[in-house]
Input
Amino acid sequence: MAYQPGTLEPKWQRAWQEANAFRTGTDTSKPKFYALDMFPYPSAAGLHVGHPLGYTATDIVARYHRHLGHNVLHPMGWDAFGLPAEQHAIETGEHPAKLTFRNIDTYRRQLQRLGFSYDWEREVCTCDPDYYRWTQQIFTVLHERGLAYQTETPVNWCPALKTVLANEEVVDGLSERGGHPVYRVPMRQWMLRITAYADRLLADLNGLDWPENIKEIQRNWIGKSTGARVRFAVSPASGEASADVVEVFTTRPDTLYGVTYMVLAPEHPLVERIAVGEFRSKVTLYKDAASRKSDRERAEAAKEKTGENTGAFVTHPLTGAKIPVYISDYVMMNYGTGAIMAVPAHDERDHAFAKAFGLPIVQVVAPQGAAAVEIDVQKNAYAGDGAIVNSPLINGLSVDAAKEKILATLEEKGLGERAITYKLRDWLFSRQRYWGEPIPVLKDSAGGTVRALRADELPLTLPEVESYEPTGDGKSPLSAIRSWVERKDEQGNTIFVETDTMPGSAGSSWYFLRYCDPLNKSAMFDFEKAKYWMPVDLYVGGQEHAVGHLLYSRFWTKVLFDAGLSPVSEPFHRLVNQGMICRDGAKMSKSKGNGVSPDEVVRDYGADTLRVYEMFMGPFTQTKDWQDSNLAGVFRFLGRVERLYVNDAGQGQLNETPPTPGDLRLLHKTIKKISEDIGSMSFNTAVAQMMIFVNGMYESGCRSRAILEPFLVCLAPYAPHLAEELWHRAVVGATSDPSQPGYPFVSLAPWPAFDPALVVDDEIRMGVQVNGKHRGEIVLPVGAAQDVAVAAALANEQVRAAMEGKELKKTIYVAGRILNFVVG
Output
């Protein structure tokens, strides 16, 4: 019988759907397992074969836990608000929801064709008002707790596109779409105060089973630094007296005597006041140029240092020396205070700037002890520890002792104090666009917040609009819909609905909680249900979300926990990042035109072939290269599996013959290996063990039910359609009806246990060498003595031929590892 996945796979997908075989269990006395994929944005391109890599892995783990008798929550949904759908609406006039739901239908169809065991009754969609009413309610919780506020902040404004762009949408000062000039301009925006949770976000990383590199990325992004705030009095270029003070934060107050200049961010509010006369015009031009660069471009460590002299000075708080003040785009207003005290002898960026502008470089730290070497800070910055030099108050002290003395002196003089700062900035939460969750806030005519909407006023739904084009003045298209924007308060005064919308990351910051109780009409979710299911036991997705989605989700979960709405303060217990699937060494993408559609693979080889191939390609977390030719090998393997169970007529051919000890040991080793490999997500080695098992069955001629029936359960998480078909034909009986209630699907069968005594070999296969070259193999009892091994080796024809006519000089034998005859 030829393997025909095109026939059997749709059959079992229908059977599972009709039986609702993967409905989430409700018996809370059972152990639970919550397996979750980062849900996708439904793009018009549909899935390529890189997407199912992670989905297949979580499906295997979810199916395994069902076999173990656990309640399994394995849902799927859609991160559905996004710029591509809005851009399509701008270009075509079609409502973004229509394109979005068409794309969702495509994604759902593709996922269902791959046999994933999702509970589709729990499907969520972030652009559905029944979902985003709760996203809006979470915003009101944030607002009530002082964690949502409005302020003026620099944004990437593109006049040609009439909209604010995210940093990743700006390349070399131009919009990624269209290549239009982009400017950094201040605009009133909603912000979420994630910085209030910085310490907890840092501390709680320690208890998570996450890849260490992801934890480190978050630690660096949060960027907690302990140091000092130091104040420098300003001396303007005009020579007039000034009450202005520049405050800087530094982690190295011990280097204060090495400050030779100061740099302000171009956006710093003091720049306009202190740059006058001949310096002002150049400073203005430089500020304009800097406004066209994204933060990412400005932070490039390797880029050439540029800047302008303001003509102003600040006074050194300890020496009284006048220090020139520059502006440069490598200093940013959104980190620290927007000003730095430059110590070029001991900081690479400051050194590069000093060399570019001919500024003094003064060494204040010298290496000592075993590390002492001759250094020239005029050539290169020295960033190591050592003893303090050229610093009258602290000469000779260690770095730590010098820090303490400088801090004490600054605090005594009122010129500074100890401080902690973070790289983490508050979350910019406004978007001046149509296709997003409306922010549920009412405002007065001056733009001040009157109140957040009450729960009974939600959802605040998106209105129909005539044009999806931004207004051109920085406002959302919603601002043009007066009938939607204007309302009356209880006194009859006109109040206004906020016209900014939330970013796409809003709905994805809590969806994992909604899956616990997705049909609830009266609450975000039932607290007790969430208490049972949360946290997510296994979360799989790309590491590119380390400082976006993963950080925002942790923040929102902590806020809901503090508000008594979430039973957990961390959403994801275990995180695993799948590796990429590349083609010809490049990441698959629509823009590169190198994607492979899973629809094509399913058509030609079947879903099970795709699932098993992707798991067999290599270690799950590493990058792998797609090879079309290798699909055929996996297809043939599955065909060999089928022929073990059914004859050419398609009839089951298992028998009741007692298994041999060798076959029994191979089965139990296979059960053990596959069980452990699923736990460690070593899927490629599990597939390799399956291949070893199948080869063993063909070698021994085994068709014993006692051996092959348990193997089908082990195969089912990987190739569920084929396993279900063979279970039906060879185990349950081909005359049974899968549509009948209570049909015993292999997908729900108990997982077989292995006998520890049967996974220990009593015999081993060992290579024999003559003068270090492999000449044959022998089978020995475990722990066999040397004379037994030598006798077995000399009975081997190839070994005897290699030694014939030669004198045996030495025998090297390590039991179970090596037997080498040295001859001459």
Q: What stands out?
A: The radius of gyration is 34 Å. Residues 226 and 560 are 29 Å apart (CA to CA).
